[in-house]
Specification:
91 residues, mainly alpha, 6 helices
Length: 91
């Protein structure tokens, strides 16, 4: 199976997703180890998601991370899509 390369837009969305998760984790004063353990993923996977090196993580991984940092999925989605005004209103 050949994987289709990601578009620039998909990579940017992944970077925004990672930034939103990292910011939420920092705001909650939670370590990468704590969040990764609660979400059931490795610290390295969390690091890659937060830095945009995994720009399209699986839905259930995103859901577990959002739960771990107490970030509603709709807020996380708005952040990933670059809708800052929606994120600001939810805060």
């Amino acid at each position: 199976m050949v994987r289709v390369p990601l578009t620039d837009e998909e990579r940017e969305r992944g970077e925004r997703l990672g930034l939103a998760l990292r910011d939420a984790r920092a705001s909650a004063s939670r370590s990468m180890v704590e969040v990764a353990a609660e979400a059931g993923i490795s610290v390295e996977t969390l690091r890659k998601i937060e830095t945009g090196r995994i720009p399209t993580p699986a839905f259930f991984t995103v859901m577990a991370l959002a739960d771990a940092v107490r970030l509603p999925l709709d807020v996380l989605r708005a952040a990933a899509e670059g809708r800052a005004e929606d994120v600001a209103e939810a805060s």
